[in-house]
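*** Fold description ***
***
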Amino acid sequence: MSRQSLCPCESGLPYASCCGPLLSGEKTAPTAEALMRSRYTAYTRVALEYLLKSWHSSTRPASIDVKSIPHWCGLEIIDTKGGQAGDQAGIVEFRATALGSERLIVLRERSQFIFEDNAWLYVDGEFIQEEEPPSPPEPISASKAGAKAKKKIGRNDPCPCGSGRKFKKCCGF
């Protein structure tokens, strides 16, 4: 199976049988974790309508600025509490990585979800402080030729987001 057919949420499943049916409205998320994964996928695909629809009305913004969405390239679910069929609430802790123009962005959040009107909805999240991620190395320039300069990330180098994949197959878009 090609990397392109896998779901961006890193479940290891094909998009068509993972988050695809949720984003299209064909199905609803069966758990809080499934909703969390589908919202991550929605951010990677800039599916703003789905993001707003899956956000609880008490905390939902009026709109989402497309320019504020970085290039998300990695998701790791750290922990879940509740959020299963029959539960009314759930918490999903996750770490998501994105490649910004100048550095790697790491977002670690403990998100709260509720089950209302037969659907899981994102309520809000508490950010968890982590160590500052390393900045991607700068390319060597002529002005730095004599100085000790950082090497540019090569397409075949390990991705700095920590996924274990090559940069070109991960954040190197």
Notes: The longest strand covers residues 104-116.
